[in-house]
Amino acid sequence: MQTPNVIASDLDGTLLGPDHQLTERTRKALVAAREHGFAIVAVTARTPYGVANLPGLMELVDTAICANGAIFCQPEGGDIRILRSIPLPVARKVSETLTELLPGAAFAVETGTGIVGEGPYQELVNSPNWDFADSLEGVFDRAERVVKIKLYHPERTGDDMAAAVAGADLSELDMCHWGDFGMLDFNAPGVNKATGLEIWCTEHGYGPEDVVAFGDMPNDAPMLSWAGRSYAVGDAHPETLAAATDRAKSNAEDGVAQVIEGLIEAARSVA
């Protein structure tokens, strides 16, 4: 198999350590990879500001693909490009359906520049980029744009929530979940980590055969299936394991860094 040109990685649970920061080994591996000509792409469910706030990351990536593939964020200047959003009437209709299927769940809407969420999210987040409303209607009243719908339930798993909405009319929105953690994300139809990464690669002259990708959760599975080579890290979700071509050590063991170090050695051997 050819040496890849693009390293694409999920962040939390994958590239970042258990403390959600870059470890020194991973930082050194990314620096070395860039020196050897690899393009580095972060592909994450995080918002652009959630990525920008990670110390030392943006200076090491060529771009950050955020919101599960819906937003491109450039390292220099932090400029964002929204690929596709959800029409507000569609978002309202889908949210009404989800409210019936998952009573007790709390909603949030990512706008591209911030997030508006219902009250229960205040227990999860501490960020100046969040705004809170007392009701779902209040959330939509404050959201000028809907890039992604987030749905959180403190007493259910993501797997269970996904099963509960299976078969419902959700206007073909692209859905992903987090396994044991009780959250669902909804993007516009056809927007996911794979399509976002494919768009970026096409714009820069790369194909799937040029990409090695890393992930751990179901939202990473489309990207891992698309990439020519892919690694499920650590105790990845079964959907992620099924999508990947290979396995890597966990983020606690710098699994991505270990693979990158091997790629650099392979690149040196053919130089």
TrEMBL record:
Pfam families: Hydrolase_3. The lineage of its organism: Bacteria, Bacillati, Actinomycetota, Actinomycetes, Glycomycetales. This is HAD family phosphatase. GO terms for cellular component: cytosol. It comes from the Bacteria. InterPro entries: HAD-like_sf, HAD_sf. One of its GO terms (molecular function) is phosphatase activity.
